[in-house]
User: What shape does this take?
Amino acid sequence: DDLFERHPDIIRRLCVDSPVLLPTLLDGLIWRSRITERGQRRVVYFLKHLLVKPDGTFAQAIDWITQNQDPAIACHPVVSYVIDLVWTGVAARAFLFRKAWLLMTTIVFMLSQVILNSGLHDGGPGSVWVR
Assistant: This one.
C-alpha cells in the first residue's frame, strides 16, 4: 500500500524507465502459502491498486502495460487475473449490450434479403432477374 500511495504511477514509470523490474514488482503482488493441502497451494493476489485509484476511479495500470507491448508482462498471472476480473465483472456485459444492436440489424437484414430474394426469383410475371 505504501508504495502505491507514494508512487501511484509506479507501473507506468517501470514500463517506461525499467521494464526489466516490472515482473519483479508483479511477482511481489502474489503471496503463495508454503503449506500445501491435497496437492494445492493457497495463493493471494494483491490487486487493489491495479484496479482502482485512491479516489475510486478505474486505474490505468492495464493501459500502461498494454502500451508497453511486452507479451511476457501481458501473460503474467497478476495481469491475466486483473484482465479476467475486469472482463467478467464489467466489460463483457457492456460489450454484449453494445453489440446487440449490430446483431439485431444483421438478422433483420438477412431476413429481408431472404424474403425479397424468394419473391423475385419465383419466375412469375413480376419477377426480375438481375445479374
About this structure: The radius of gyration is 26 Å. The chain has a mean pLDDT of 85. The chain is about 60% helix and 10% strand. The first strand starts at residue 30 and ends at 37.
